[in-house]
Amino acid sequence: MCLQQTDNFVKVYIIAFCVLASSIFPALKVSAQDTLRINQKEAESLFLTQNLDLIAQKLSIRQAEAAIIQARLWPNPEFSLDEVNLWATRNQLSSGETIPPLFGNVGRNREFTAELSQLIETGGKRRKRIALESVSRDMAAEYFGELVRELKMQLRGGLFELAYQQAYVTELLAQDAVLARLVAAFEGQYSRGNVNKGELFRLRAVKLELAQQIVEIQKEIHGLQKDLTVLLHTPANAYLVFEAPDRPDTGPLATLSLDALTTTALANRPDARISILQQQWAQKKYDYEYAQRKPDVNVGINYDRGGNFLLNFFGFGVKFDVPVFNRNQGAILESKVGIEHAQVQNDQKSLQVQTEVTEAFRNLRKHLGVYQSLDPAYSDELGQVLESYTRQFVQRNVSMVEYLDFLEAVLANKRTILTALKDLRQSREALIYVTGSEIQ
């Protein structure tokens, strides 16, 4: 009688298993209104148009352009009106000297002086200041490119990590659903006396451990969702699902040349170009400070009414500093040292770029070799074999120890396959990052 019940249970369980397995994946989806399914191209388009850090950095370029406009402006002329007597007393007029009005009765017995002057910069200071600000503008543009490079690396890394974690948690949830049905079936069989308590508790413990693992991965997914939401400036309640290609095209990766990649990096990386621009800025700064040795000249014309032996006196004048003590020696020396400092920094940056490209290239080759060694059908075959093991376990043809060991091995292999794919994608992105150029 007991054997009959067991056979009936097995038949019912296998049918239920096939029905429920088809419902696992739909159950994993988030409600449509909160889910944002996005591919890499769409994510990057959203990132370039909506990321607040990029918008702020674009404004820095406009600020630098405004500084060039300001540098092009000439100094304003200066006007002064002095020595105006607002009244004249009888005692002041008792000498008999009077001043005729300017027109009508306006300005009678009124004395004043007026002066108009203009600063003239010597030594090409204005031109050198414009050149200095132009380099600053070019640096602001490169800083924008560097920010794009940094944030794009974060974005792509986050998307590929999200794809990995979501794919792995899907595998775990599928196995969790299978274990849930196995536990329910074993509880029914335990109540009938067909299995012992130790087997039931062992199965429950495995399911509990798997559930805890799922929770930890989902917490990591939530952290990735937060970071990507900030990068893409999407609604805070949106749940991102990254739709990555199942298998990347590895053909172009195998033909990459280290020398060509290094040359590309030195020419294209924004931080390498910034280093060169810093050298140019240091030279322009030196030129500007050296021009400060020559004093600027103030030329002016003044008018004196009634303050001299001439009633209407017009005079011309020139004013400038006499460079006896201060010839801008300290600033010139500082800017000269700045040129040497910028040269050393550029040499250091060049070496850094070369070593980073070499490291990223080697890592990519290593991960590419691991990924290419995997059989594309292996993951599907693992699922099929696990399904078969589950049926054998339910039919008691496989012991619990054997089944759980195999389940653990399958999950570990699934994770290894997903990790190999993630590592290949991220090592490719790392090479793109260090070269500053897309890899076709």
Automatic annotation (TrEMBL):
SUPFAM superfamilies: Outer membrane efflux proteins (OEP) (SSF56954)
Keyword Transmembrane helix: yes
InterPro entries associated with the record: MdtP/NodT-like (IPR010131)
Segments crossing the lipid bilayer: 12-32
Keywords tagged on the record: Membrane, Transmembrane, Transmembrane helix
Coiled-coil stretches noted in the UniProt entry, renumbered to this chain: none
Highest taxon above the source species: Bacteria
Annotated GO MF terms: efflux transmembrane transporter activity
Record has Aminoacyl-tRNA synthetase as a keyword: no
Record protein name field: Outer membrane efflux protein
UniProt source species: Dyadobacter fermentans (strain ATCC 700827 / DSM 18053 / CIP 107007 / KCTC 52180 / NS114)
